[in-house]
Amino acid sequence: MKSIRLINRVKISMLGIVLLGFFAMPSFAASFTLNLVRTGNLTNVDDAEGRWQFSGGEVYLGKSLIGYFVSKKRVSFAVPLNKAALETTIILKSGDNNITFQGEHSFDTGKQEGAVSAASAGLSGFRDATVSGSNSALTFTY
After folding, report:
1. What is the DSSP string of 73-127?
2. pLDDT tens readout for residues 121-132
3. Please, what sign has the CA dihedral across residues 126, 131, 133, 134?
4. What is the pLDDT of residues 83-95, one digit of tens each?
5. Which of 13, 70, 90, 122 gives 20 to 30 Å between its CA and that of 104?
6. How far apart are CA 112 and CA 33, in angstroms?
7. Rounded to whole angstroms, how far apart are CA atoms 49 and 47?
8. Residue 118: its pLDDT value, please?
């Protein structure tokens, strides 16, 4: 009887060690950087509450054209920060996959930060990725 109790205690202890190791395993993040080249005009549209800023252009991974982007920023005249709410959608050249991220743009530093808020089925693995960079280069970390 004592040997059965000892064996059960050993099993429970081993299970605890295995679970501890599982939850303590390091996670490795992957990332990639896309270069954005504006090919249209930067357009500002003012209204009673603030300003919309629209732009668009090409998206490159390295030197390869992989798609196009459409971006809009919203500045509120009621917010005393020199920042804008940002939404950028990247549409791949095939036309059947896209990814959208939302975040903020700092007019002081030019930096952009946010996260992927939507992705088509073909890019669903990038949902919840974080995004950081500038108007010309964005790094996605997932």
Report:
1. EEEETT--SSEEEEEEEEEETTSS-EEEEEEEEETTT--EEEEEEEE-GGGGGGT
2. 999 999 989 999
3. positive
4. 999 999 999 999 9
5. 122
6. 13
7. 6
8. 96
pLDDT for position 78: 94
Q: Give the residue from 113, 128, 51, 61 showing the smallest Cα distance to 90.
A: 61
**Which pTM does this prediction carry?**
0.79
Helix (H, G, I), strand (E, B) or coil at 45: strand
Cα 27–chain centre separation: 18
Per-residue pLDDT reduced to its tens digit, 18-56: 444 444 445 678 999 999 999 999 999 999 999 999 999
Q: Which residue has the tokens 């940002």?
A: 86
Contacts by 50-54 with C-beta closer than 8 Å and gap 24+?
50/74, 50/75, 50/76, 50/77, 50/78, 51/75, 51/77, 53/84
Distances (CA, A) of 82 to 37, 76, 112, 138: 23, 10, 13, 20
Please state, in angstroms and rounded to a whole number, the distance separating the CA atoms of residues 68 and 60. Answer: 9
